[in-house]
Amino acid sequence: MKKPSLIVAAVLAALATSAAVAATTSSTFQVLITVTKACSVTAGAGSNINFGSVTSTATALSASSNISVTCSKSTPYNIGLQPSSVPTNTTGAGVMNPTVAGPDTIPYQLRSVSATGPIWGNTATPTAVGNGVAGTGTGAAQSIPVFATVASVNVTPGDYSDTVTVQVNY
């Protein structure tokens, strides 16, 4: 009768060995991404500020348009405007020059909020609004109004223009 107990012992030993072979182990890994902040600005012909046709006796003119800024969600930004006619000027004061050579120019002032609102210049930086306009990105395009004022157009009749650079600092 000793043989059956030896057989049972051998079967139990074999089962214990196969149970050890069937063990599992695990580990982990991560899925990673780095999202960087980004901004874009859209101006162009659709953003032109056009005072239209006026007589040379017109005074206290104002006109406006919009620029579009798209920044990553929760990204703070500051917008500066720089007229090309006075590149060293930081106060948003520009001069429209005649498109055909002539003696006259038309001074104008860029403003935010309204035609009588704060002067909008180009002292904005990524960390300070200066005399610019501040905003926070939503991930969608944001329409930002720009106003321009002209005190007087007592000049030689003709077409006058200037180009303004929009700089978004973030």
How would you summarize what this structure contains?
The protein has 170 residues and is mostly beta strands.
Textual characterization of the structure:
The chain contains 1 helix and 9 strands; from the N terminus they run H-E-E-E-E-E-E-E-E-E. It has 170 residues and is mostly beta strands. It has one domain: Immunoglobulin-like (Sandwich), CATH 2.60.40.1090. The N and C termini lie far apart (89 Å).
Record the SSE blueprint.
Blueprint: H1 2-21, E1 39-42, E2 59-71, E3 76-83, E4 93-98, E5 106-111, E6 133-136, E7 141-152, E8 160-161, E9 164-169
Antiparallel strand pairs: 1-2, 2-7, 3-6, 3-9, 4-5, 4-8, 5-7
Give short descriptive properties of this protein.
170 residues; mainly beta; Immunoglobulin-like; 1 helix
Order of helices and strands: HEEEEEEEEE
- Here the CATH topology equals Immunoglobulin-like
Distance between the termini: 89 Å
Mind telling me the C-alpha Rg?
A: 35 Å
Strand order in the sheet with the most strands = 1-2-7-5-4-8
Going by CATH, the architecture would be Sandwich
Strand content: 35-45%
Question: How many helices?
Answer: 1
Helix percent reads: 10-25%
Main sheet characteristics: 6 strands, antiparallel
Question: What is the CATH homologous superfamily assignment?
Answer: Fimbrial-type adhesion domain
How many β strands by DSSP? Answer: 9
Write down the overall geometry: rod-shaped
- Outline the low-pLDDT stretches: none
CATH top-level class: Mainly Beta
